[in-house]
Design brief:
The protein is of the alpha/beta class. The chain has one domain: 3-Layer(aba) Sandwich (Rossmann fold). The protein contains ten helices and eight strands. Strands 1-2-4-3-5-6-7-8 form an eight-stranded mixed sheet, with helices on both faces. The longest helix has 19 residues.
Length: 304
Amino acid sequence: MQQKINFVGGKTYTFTLTDEVNLPATNGKIDIMVYLPKGYEIDNKKYGVVYLFDGQNGFSCGTEKYPTPMCGGWDFDGAIELLQQSGHDGVIVVGIDNGTGADVRDSQLTMSTQFGPLTPLSQEGKFASGTLELLGNFIKSTLMPFVNSSFSTLTTMENTGIVGASSGGLAAFYLGLRDSNLYGYVGAFSPATGLFFLPSWHNFLSQVGVNKQQKMYICCGKNSTDMLENILYDATVAVTDTVQLEHLNELGGVASTCELAHLLVEHGYPQKNIVEHYVDGAIHNEGSWKKILLDFLPKSLGIK
């Protein structure tokens, strides 16, 4: 590994790490994108770190492997530059490549059915072989040590975040709670938590407990022309008749985004640590999440 001083701020670097937890479809390797704030090479400072799912879509200028991010990308680098212009040091952003193809991506960002049965929101069974537990273990055992040994990082929980959208939002929500000793703040953007019934989430939170110091940011579009975003916000909009609704309720209901804060508070998560941001008309793509990012970062980092 190069010495830290050789890295230049304001740039995104791509690394390929050995996959030591045997995630399917990675061929033993996972690509990681690391964005360093401007001034990194001269400031002699340490920076907080935020881990991002779908990292290949995270940066405005793309990366070496993905020169054109989807839908313009999240523009995470631009968001960090705005933070720095307001006087904040900025943070290091670590984007995790979730592979190519919907089946690979969704299975890596979804828990296995051992977590609980899938709801009617799942499609074509591609979520059933979820390996998110393995990806979370990779982050904890391989990726975090690599980042903290290679870059000038603040390693405490309060200086470490995890964020994602859609299946990535599900992944951030789940791993943020599973490994709450690692992540001081979590961003669940349009999270696909509704793939699993509410009783599964209750069981999960009863087992792992909550970290009362952690911050949770939950967002989703509503009243949108995008049906997927509406379903993620409130799954009942996809129910076509009362018989289906009764059956859904008999099974415990779906973990719609609009119910997640209540779920957390019921298990002891402090209400004051939860931010809910529901955007009228927002659709399910990177362009919408890019706008929300500018609200998420200051609130999660405690910037007023």
